[in-house]
Write a structure and sequence with these properties.
It contains six helices and four strands. By secondary structure, the chain is of the alpha+beta class.
């Protein structure tokens, strides 16, 4: 099995692939799709719809070298004319594998998707660092009381301070 097709299977199992025209179109319109893939033997009407979906969601769309049966077999269907990948890293890895086989057809798309995936990864790292910083700010280290002042006595719950006249 081709390694690029293997990535499609992984994306489907991870829930990062929308398979079929309607789910792929919905993912594009919601701007969740990262790349839209169309089978090599897809109908002209399907290709036109893919182009419209991609334009609406500002997503690159690519015609794959596989037919509908091969593309469908990779994602657990009998046939599939169109699918959308919603994970930037998986989309970039898949298009890079396609670019290795045909650099002229898929090279520019691979570079653009790799840039997007790198930017998204950087944002995720910054978000994690920010969350860690907030967690560290909540945990204040213990410090002894200042010299010359006695630490307050722990009276426990329910005990009140006695008043002296």
């Amino acid at each position: 099995m081709d390694s690029a097709l293997h990535l499609l299977g992984i994306a489907r199992k991870a829930g990062r692939a929308e398979v079929g025209e309607e789910p792929a179109g919905a993912a594009c319109r919601a701007r969740q799709a990262r790349v839209l893939l169309v089978a090599a033997d897809a109908a002209d009407n399907s290709i036109r719809r893919a182009a419209r979906f991609a334009e609406a969601g500002q997503v690159p769309w690519l015609k794959t070298p596989w037919d509908k049966g091969t593309l469908g077999g990779a994602v657990g269907r009998t046939a599939c004319a169109m699918l959308a990948l919603t994970d930037a890293g998986l989309a970039a890895a898949l298009v890079e594998k396609l670019a290795q086989a045909d650099p002229d057809a898929y090279g520019p798309a691979a570079e653009a998707l790799r840039d997007k995936a790198d930017r998204q990864l950087q944002r995720q790292r910054e978000q994690r660092a920010h969350e860690k910083k907030l967690e560290r700010a909540k945990k204040k280290p213990w410090a002894p009381p200042p010299a010359g002042r006695a630490a307050p006595k722990n009276r426990g719950p329910g005990k009140k301070k006695k008043r002296t006249p």
